Amino acid sequence: MALLAGLFATAVLLAGCSVKYPVVGAFDDYNEVFIGEVDHNLVSGTASIQVEGKNSGLQCKGNSRVLHIPLSNIIAGSFLIPYCTGQEGIAILSCSDGSAIKATWTAESCTSGYGHGYDQNGARFNFAFGLSEEEAFQRFKEDEAEVANLPEYPVYRPKEKREELGFSTGTGFLVSETGYLMTNYHVIEDAEEISIKTASGELPVTVVATDEANDVALVRAPISGTPLPLSRGDDLVVADEVMALGYPLVMLQGQTLKATFGRVNALSGILDHPRYIQIDVPIQPGNSGGPLVDETGRVVGIVTMTLDDLVTLGVVGTLPQNVNYAVKSKYIVDLVSDFEISSSNSDQDSEFRDLVARYRDSVFLVIAR
Q1: For 289, phi and psi rounded to 5 degrees?
Q2: What pairs with residue 243 in β-bridges?
Q3: Domains of the chain, first to last
Q4: Model pLDDT for residues 58-105, shown as the tens digit of each residue
Q5: Which of 42, 83, 179, 226 has CB atoms 3.0–4.6 Å from 76's, for a disulfide?
Q6: What is the pTM of this model?
Q7: Spans in the chain with pLDDT lower than 50
Q8: Distances (CA, A) of 30 to 53, 96, 146, 310
Q9: Residues 302, 175 contacting (CB under 8 angstroms)
């Protein structure tokens, strides 16, 4: 997290220099402590970070960059002196339960400092980096003792939710004529039995490949049909019109396919996370895993989650207005690239009503037990 920036002369002085050092921290209101490693490139001014929670097993990884460089650092750099005290920066990490955390830090030297941050639900944590291994372990044990009597950190565990109800539902869609389907990883995570609902009844599903970090999964069922064409979404822009197809709240809304419409609001997600697209397309539980389709009929994302009303109210004191997210389609394309899956062509002049009619038999209710 501590990053060196300065004039070019300083960069030349440190060319090829990369260092690794510990990072440790704890949440303010939970009994979770974490420890990990920073891999810091002193020349580029970037760092990669990996941490793991001791009690929850939650794993988070991401990157950091500098936001502010004091004038004193620049002056020192002109004299080939690597001086970083007072630099400030930001780190954004994605976690194994699909959550994201954002932190800010202040450097005390070119390889040490401190900071604090929040997860996407507003839980605050503090951390320090650049300690020796002995110092990091000591800090870790002290933090652990200090928060031992606090509540457990609320990690999202789909398996436990499924055990409460006996099943969970989501959406999946064809990406090949030979029965390959995409859905969210969290829809099928830890399920003992997975099926899709078709006109002729439920059909079994086998898991082919998963990408837990990006919350996507490739599965296969004994069916054939019209696949939805995939796009990497490189030409997607804010204000593009999009459509979601899925099976929301089946216990209330029934098992008929629902189509909802809206626009792309941002090309990033919660805490500016680059994995997601923000959309104002209305979605509900059960839409997860469904396709987000643009006006040409291409899949540009996979519908994933909505910003929680009560959590947002507690953090910022107001209710969100239709803030929803989809995982970018490039992660779908990356997952299917190792398989013989060919995507059909998109139609430049298609209207959404035509696309709904074309793909209604290619989007399925996913049932995980």
Answers
A1: 95, -5
A2: 261, 293
A3: 8-146 (2.40.128.120), 158-368 (2.40.10.120)
A4: 888 888 888 888 877 667 666 556 667 888 888 988 887 767 788 998
A5: 83
A6: 0.62
A7: 1-16, 310, 313
A8: 11, 18, 10, 19
A9: no
